[in-house]
Amino acid sequence: MAKRSTHFRQPRCEYPFAGLVRAAGVADVEELQEIMGFAGLEKRIRVLERFFSATGKQCTCRTGVETTYHNATELKKLMEIRCPVHGFRDLGYLRWLPSGLPLQPDDHNLCCCPPCPVRELLQGRRGPLTDLEQEEEMQRWEREYGPSSEDEFRNEEVRVARLRQEYEYTKRNSRRN
What's this model's pTM, rounded to 2 decimal places? Predict the structure, then answer.
């Protein structure tokens, strides 16, 4: 009878650490490589971010969030602001707001609308509106968004559509570079 070897023989496989990977609870080597690939990518991104922040540049993109505007003039101003890191500034999701509502805090200085008590109230800069202010505000909304303002609103929509088209074109082309 042949004597069995007491020497532990490691099974041959194309991935030498496959046994360790399975023991660690990871299903297969491809999954581990995918995880490690993301970790490596994350590490490289962090290094680049540190490099750019070391040069004093900070990204001002709004990727994945919302950027609001009241009219074409404000949208144009928002589009003119460049990201110091990327050159092109991603504004995320563009959304129109009525002039009585405040823009994002970072964009308050870009608002070219006349003063509005409701906007000031929503920004926390004043208390409740008086009865007279409420009446004036209702009249202003009727002037801005009622049937008599339809032509101006359509013209404004055309200007905004052109700007949005220009923005999307620039956004697509900046990703290629």
Answer: 0.65
